[in-house]
Amino acid sequence: MSVQPDPLPSALRDAAATAQRGHNVIAVAPPGPGVAHALLGATLAARAPGAGLLVILVADAELAAWGPAVLEAARRAGRRALVAAGAARAARAVRDPALDVLVVTATLARALAERSAWPAERIAALLLVRPELQDEAVLTSLVADLPKEAQRVVLTSEGEAVVAFGERFARRALTVGVPAADTAPTPPAGPVRVTTVAWDQRAAALPQLLELLDPASAAVWVGDAATAGAVAARLPAGDGTLTITADDVPAAELVIAYDPPSVERLHQLVAAGPTIVLVPASAATYVARITSRRQAFRLPDGLDGARDQATRHRATIEAAVRGRRLEGALLALAPLLERHDAATVAAALYELWLERPAEAGAAPVAVAPAAPAIAPAGSSARVFVDVGRKDGLTPADLVAVLTKELGVDRGDIGRIEIRETFALVELPSGSAPDIAVRLSGKTVRRKRLSARLDRGGATRRREQHA
To answer: N or C: which end of the chain has fewer CB atoms below 10 A?
Structure first.
């Protein structure tokens, strides 16, 4: 396949030039800060130090990615920047006229507004990063408070939503990175393997992949040349078989996309050799859209964790085999054992066990005196889903959409409660917010889902009115 050169750098150059003149811009680009240094630098350069505050609004799931990138860009430009982690410090910092750049999540910005500490009158420019991952109502209220003359720059990976974003957040903005109406879209590329890894863990994942796969030659593609040095620092020095580039990748036995690429760039990577894309959870939907065939590739830590969990499950079952009277259960299963082999029946029961419990109010199934084997390790959080028993929803429906469409490990799914008008799903607290974002919009039993972290009070009110 003949692939045109990646149009993204020139599109970003156009966006950067417009942003540097202080105009509104909507730029469509792959997720992640690697491709946005030019746009970020131009937005900083549009005004002198002390001439107003640049606020960068990011989703909770992407703060770890954007924080270091913004701090580095601010350092190069000689500007003071703060990556806000808590309301108290941020509320104090925004009162300092010497602060040039504030990186903050919409959630924390709303908390500042509730404290009357949101510095709307000081904001000279707003860089809104991936609004598709953020609460639209919160963003609308925050943007509405900006001074009329404040510059608005939107960076999104959802090209089909640019019109809506322009109407809500950046009127009369130049839009770049969207193909012309008479241009056929580039088809998805593939096959590729994808490794799910957090934004701030990608550099650590590179040596693991090279050690595990041991390719005779390898190439690492990065979305911006400015990050190549940091990537090289994590890899073996003096290895002549390894190439790191932000341009076309040479032929290699293994190609690793460090940043999510554009679909045009992904075609070039796949043509160069077998490709693995490092995919942070918040970029999973984007990568699914640009790939034709993909296969999950787990790093050793994740695989070892799954094996450990399977070992715990086997130990729990073996304890039940050795220490319980099973005559009643065998009698109930006898007809199945006559029609199917015992291993198949056991496998089906194991699958059902992992998907338990069923309806809300049912007594939990006690397999062993120990804690339930399906409970996820570490702290957990509950995700609220606005579809319930009256819609025909079952635990199996939620498990299917989480595992098959979102790529959630079955062992990370804890207790599922199906109530009359809604459902609650236990998930690891570290990934629950991102999973809730990606679950929203999925369809189950012809119902479009809306999901969020459970706040308790809303759940109780829904129960009272059910």
So the answer is: N
Retrieve residue 354's tokens. Answer: 């992992």
Burial 403-427 (b: 16+ CB within 10 A, else e): eebbbbbebbbbbbbbbeebbbbbb
CB 31 within 8 Å of CB 61? no
- For 205, the token pair is 């994942």
Separation CA 53–CA 118 (nearest Å)? 12
Which two tokens mark 164?
Answer: 């809506």
Mean of pLDDT values over 259-272: 94
Spatial contact of 86 and 94, defined as CB atoms under 8 Å apart = no
CA separation for the pair 347, 366 (Å, rounded): 18
Question: 385, 449 in Cβ contact below 8 A?
Answer: yes
Neighbouring CB atoms inside 10 A of 18's CB total: 20
Q: Which of 171, 178, 217, 198 is nearest to 12 (CA)?
A: 178
* DSSP-assigned beta bridge partners for residue 291: 189
Report the candidate in 130, 153, 167, 373 with the shortest Cα–Cα distance to residue 260.
130
Instruction: Lay out the sheet containing 275-279: strands in order across.
Output: 242-245, 218-221, 254-257, 275-279, 192-196, 294-296
CA angle, 262 then 265 then 266, to 5°: 85
Q: How confident is the model at residue 6 (pLDDT cuts 50, 70, 90)?
A: very low
The one-letter code for the residue type at 354 is L
Quote the pLDDT of residue 412.
85
Q: Left, alpha or beta for 32 (phi > 0: left; psi -120 to 50: alpha)?
A: left
3-state helix, strand, coil in the chain (%, to 5): 45, 20, 35
422 and 416 in contact (C-beta within 8 Å)? no
Averaged confidence pLDDT in the chain: 81
Distances (CA, A) of 397 to 70, 163, 292, 391: 41, 34, 25, 11
CA–CA distances in Å: residue 88 to residues 47, 57, 93, 121, 239: 27, 18, 9, 19, 47
User: Residue 278 pLDDT more than 90?
Assistant: yes
Cα–Cα distance measured from residue 199 to residue 335, given in angstroms and rounded to the nearest whole number: 51
Write the CB contacts of 74 (distance below 8 Å, at least 6 apart in sequence): 44, 80, 81, 100, 101
Instruction: For strands 416-418 and 423-428, give the pairing.
Output: antiparallel
State the Cα–Cα distance between residues 299 and 294, nearest whole angstrom: 16
The pLDDT value recorded for residue 193 is 95
End-to-end Cα separation, the chain, in angstroms: 56
Q: Cα separations (Å) of 422 from 54, 135, 366, 401, 416?
A: 40, 20, 25, 16, 11
| Contact predicate 237/48, CB 8 Å | no
